[in-house]
Automatic annotation (TrEMBL):
It holds the Pfam family Cadherin. The lineage of its organism: Eukaryota, Metazoa, Chordata, Craniata, Vertebrata. One of its GO terms (molecular function) is calcium ion binding. InterPro entries: Cadherin-like_dom, Cadherin-like_sf, Cadherin_C, Cadherin_CS, Protocadherin/Cadherin-CA. This is Cadherin domain-containing protein. It comes from Ovis ammon polii. One of its GO terms (cellular component) is plasma membrane. Signal peptide: none annotated. It comes from the Eukaryota.
Length: 431
């Protein structure tokens, strides 16, 4: 402080800077969007300044260590923000916070946010929610029935994430996949195209493709296996005894048979599967109720009691074969049983055989019978003539008179040297 002649003084005040101004940022360049596969790309160029002086106006800028960026200082308080490596939009689509700190006392810092938009690149293909799908469809389904769906997602954005579905060609050209199923290209729904038959096709599999709309497009595949569930659409079929034969099969049972004697066994099959093919047997009708029984699980027909003379010799049984489906289907078979005193007793022909025996004989058979009778009669007549001539000669050997006989060749049949065959040959005129 100084005092002049006028009585005035001059005061010089030194203002000491305090660290009291916020840091300011000036953005000179900013790229609005960066492709995610772009390394070493300049994102922004900016400057920061502090109105304070001295150490209070000196600044440093930094970013988080885990960000894929580099902050490079250029001129005084100027920085360039560049990408350190390719970005991943699916991991993080927006960045970044810049922290600016001065070197004053006390140190002050501020944070500035720079929004960096990462644009999508088609670097992710569609991914199915499952590697394989198993779908069930009941046979005899109605056409266009929805039997299931497949689903795939794409973590890209925009058109790169839009997925379309398609059926892939089968390696087996004999399986007409295009006539069995179709797929909705937009939502992956699968609508059987035809009514499926379990007995013809129990299962089939194919592959489904999912493709995005990126450029170039990416795709993936999944296996789909379709299992046809059985429905009870086949009735039991009787293999034995045959029902379409011209003459029914007749079983013989001795009257001395003990209870439980095995008469026969009904054999049947069912084209369905599972419980739809489980068969049970029961006696539906019988000539003598209580005489026979049928085992429910194997179709064996057995006697239920001792046979008596009062039981009719001809028995007719009707056996019902039923499956275990819902609703159950059935078939019936008729059995003919003949009661005999023993297996040596002549077999009684069925009515059909008796009717056939009573029918007129075939003309050729008649001719053969007549020819055979004629030859036999001629042979017998020749033998009688020969015997008569021989007796006549022997009776007249000692008398003067002889039997008038035609000349011919005669032999003494009493001669042991003459064979019987020679007599017959001579009789027939064979020399």
């Amino acid at each position: 402080m100084g005092v002049g002649l006028s009585g005035k003084c001059t005061v010089a005040i030194e203002v000491v800077d305090g660290n009291d101004d916020a840091r300011k940022r000036t953005m000179s360049r900013l790229i609005s969007s960066i492709p995610e596969n772009s390394p070493k790309t300049v994102v922004a160029v900016f400057s920061v300044y502090d109105p304070d002086s001295g150490d209070n106006g000196k600044m440093t800028s930094s970013i988080q260590n885990d960000f894929p960026f580099l902050l490079k200082p250029t001129l005084k308080n100027f920085y360039t923000l560049v990408t350190e490596r390719p970005l991943d939009r699916e991991e993080r689509a927006r960045y970044i916070t810049i922290t600016v700190t001065d070197t004053g006392t006390p140190r002050l810092k501020t944070e500035h946010n720079i929004t960096v938009l990462v644009s999508d690149v088609n670097d992710n293909g569609p991914a199915f929610t499952q590697t394989s799908y198993t779908l069930w469809v009941r046979e005899n389904n109605s056409p266009t029935l929805h039997i299931g769906s497949v689903s795939a997602t794409d973590t890209d954005a925009g058109a790169n994430a839009q997925v379309t579905y398609s059926l892939l060609p089968l390696p087996d050209p004999l399986l007409p996949l295009a006539s069995l199923v179709s797929i909705n290209p937009d939502n992956g729904h699968l609508f059987a195209l035809t009514s499926l038959d379990y007995e013809d096709l129990r299962a089939f599999e194919f592959r489904v493709g999912a493709t995005d709309r990126g450029s170039p497009a990416l795709s993936s595949q999944a296996l789909v296996r379709v299992l046809v569930a059985d429905a009870n659409d086949n009735a039991p079929f009787v293999l034995y005894p045959l029902q379409n034969a011209s003459a029914p099969c007749t079983e013989l049972v001795p009257r001395a048979a003990e209870p439980g004697y095995l008469v026969t066994k009904v054999v049947a099959v069912d084209g369905d599967a599972g419980q739809n093919a489980w068969l049970s047997y029961q006696l539906l009708k019988a000539t003598e109720p209580g005489l026979f029984g049928v085992w429910a699980h194997n179709g064996e027909v057995r006697t239920a009691r001792l046979l008596s003379e009062r039981d009719a010799p001809k028995q007719r049984l009707v056996v019902l074969v039923k499956d275990n489906g819902e609703p159950p289907l059935s078939a019936s078979v008729t059995l003919h049983v003949l009661l005999v005193d023993g297996f040596s007793q002549p077999y009684l022909p069925p009515p059909e055989a008796e009717a056939a025996a009573a029918a007129p004989a075939d003309p050729l058979t008649v001719y053969l019978v007549v020819a055979l009778a004629s030859v036999s009669s001629l042979f017998l007549f020749s033998v009688l003539v020969f015997v008569a001539v021989r007796l006549c000669r022997r009776d007249g050997a000692g008398s003067a008179g002889r039997c008038p006989v035609p000349e011919g060749h005669f032999v003494d049949v009493s001669d042991p040297q003459v064979p019987v065959g020679g007599v017959i040959d001579l009789m027939l005129g064979i020399k």
